[in-house]
Amino acid sequence: MAELVEVDDPADPRLGDYRDLRDVQLRKSFEAEHGLFLAEGEKVVRRAVEAGHSPRSFLMAPRWLDGLADVLARTDAPCFVLAESLAEQVTGFHVHRGALASLERRPLPSVPEVLAGARSVLVLEDLVDHTNVGAVFRSGAALGFDAVLLAPRCADPLYRRSIKVAMGAVFALPWTRLPDWSTALDEVSDAGFTTVALTLADDAVPIEQSVAGLDRVALVLGSEGHGLSPRWQAMADRHAIIPMREGIDSLNVAAASAVACYVTTRRTAT
């Protein structure tokens, strides 16, 4: 069972995993160096632990202890208990969900492992906003997709903001990074998927038409600013568009992913 450790000093060195959470660059380097990630909120903490990630420690306000009592009973990791005002001094923001956990990262699976048995996958190229990455994961998980592949420069799905927006979907949906951006879509096609790129290319057809009759589909989405790179557009098997009213040419990538996932999971395969 977790040891409950009451803390009254926000400078306590044992709280290092939780310090300065608003400093994105610092946190990215710190978490990579120490092989950890943070989960925020009772539901997300629970889902991370149930997905098999080993806790390093917990940080909670007293009123959240009962809600996670069963999780704390199954681990030897310490639980630092402190007032919410002190937690804010440690983290740099108001922890309104009351509970944080620091957990160990696991080695990423290979691309073939993630694709094994999958029929519908998302492939993300250079999405750099953690909120968008989390939202795409949440839509994919909710709408029946089986896996996510990320280009090397995509934002980290295990960054706190990504996990929070995804509501823990990053623990439910298998994912990994593509080792080589330049040949990534060829690797997905070789695995038996038809790659369907969401793009405003002149030859793009409505998404319903693009995915109709396909068995294994890989939806390909590009970055927030410029969309898909010319290379990935050229490598994709098909180009698709979400039809819109005149004068509006695109959706935010997170919104586009939700629409495309909804249509794709309802396709009729031949």
Describe the structure.
- With 270 residues, the protein is of the alpha/beta class.
- The protein has 2 domains: 4-104, 60s Ribosomal Protein L30, Chain: A, CATH 3.30.1330; 111-265, 3-Layer(aba) Sandwich (Alpha/beta knot), CATH 3.40.1280.10.
- It has helices at 24-34, 42-50, 69-72, 84-91, 111-115, 130-142, 160-166, 169-172, 184-190, 207-211, 230-235, 253-265, and strands spanning 4-6, 36-40, 55-60, 79-81, 99-104, 120-124, 147-150, 175-177, 194-198, 205-206, 217-221, 238-241.
- The strands form 2 sheets. The protein has a 7-stranded parallel sheet. Strands 1-4-3-5-2 form a 5-stranded mixed sheet.
- It is elongated, with a radius of gyration of 20 Å.
- The N and C termini lie far apart (52 Å).
- The mean pLDDT is 93.
Which descriptors apply to this entry?
single chain, 270 residues, alpha/beta, 60s Ribosomal Protein L30, Chain: A, Alpha/beta knot, 2 domains, seven-stranded parallel beta sheet, five-stranded mixed beta sheet, 12 helices, 12 strands, 34% helix
List the helices and strands and how they pair.
Layout: E1 4-6, H1 24-34, E2 36-40, H2 42-50, E3 55-60, H3 69-72, E4 79-81, H4 84-91, E5 99-104, H5 111-115, E6 120-124, H6 130-142, E7 147-150, H7 160-166, H8 169-172, E8 175-177, H9 184-190, E9 194-198, E10 205-206, H10 207-211, E11 217-221, H11 230-235, E12 238-241, H12 253-265
Parallel strand pairs: 1-4, 3-4, 6-7, 6-11, 7-8, 9-11, 9-12, 10-12
Antiparallel strand pairs: 2-5, 3-5
